[in-house]
Amino acid sequence: MEELRLEVREFRDLTRWRWVLTAGTGSFVVDHEVRLDPGCWQYGAFADLRGYLRWHVPPDRRRAEEVRIVSEVGAWIGSSVLGAVPAALARARHPVTVRVVAPKAPTVAEALLFRPLELAHAGGEPLAVQDVTLIMQAGSDDVGADGAPVSDRLLGLFSLPEGGKSLNLRRERDSLVTLINEIAATGKAADVRVLQYGVTRDRLRDTREEAEAWDVIHVSGHGTPGELLLETAAGKPDRVPAAELADLLDLARERVKLVTVTAC
Asked: Which domains are delineated in the chain?
C-alpha cells in the first residue's frame, strides 16, 4: 500500500498555512498555500461540522439539507483548504494512506487534525469514498513532547461501512487523540494514530505491520455477538468473526499490551 505524507508547514493561524505532500520516498509531490476567509459560512462548517448542521438544518428537511451542506463543504475543502492535493491523491495508486502531520507547537495547529479533511472532493467525490485513508498525527514521527523517542503507541481503528447507522465516530476519535496528546504534553513519550474510513482487512494487516508496532489497539464500529463489521474495498460491510479478528491482530502480539473493542 502506498503511503504519502501531508504536512502542515509555515503555520500562522487557522486561516493561513502551507500544505506539503510528499511520497513515501520523501520526494515532493505538490504543495498548496492556504488562505481562508473566516467570514464565509463554509469556514464555520469546516471548523465544527456537527455543530453547524445541528443549528442550520431544519428538522423537516434534515436529510436533504445535510446532504447538500456536506457536499458543498466537501467541495470547498477540496478547492480552498487542500487545493491541488486532492487531485494528486486521486492520481496516486490506490489504495493510498495519507499521514496528515500538524506541529504540536503552536498547539492550535493540531486543530486541523480534527477537521473533516476526508470530505474534500476530488473529481466531484469525497476522498473518503475513493480508497484514500487519512491517518492523523501530531508532531514528528519519532519523538514525544520532551524530544525523547516515542515509547508508547496507540492505534485507533474506526469502521463505518456504507449503509450502516451513523455512529459518532468523529467525536470518539477526537476524544481519543485529545487524551493521548494531553498525556504527551505532560512529558510522557506517547503517540496515537487513527484510521477512519476504508478500514478493510488489508488496511488492518498493513497498519499492524508498521515498523514501530503498537502497544494499544482500539477498534470501534458496528458489530453483532461474536463479530465486528469492518469494510470491503467498496465500502460495504465485511463481517469479521472474533477468531478472524484475532488472526488479523496476531502480528502485533510481540508488543501489544491491550486490545479494546467497542461495538453496538
From this structure: 140-264 (3.40.50.1460)
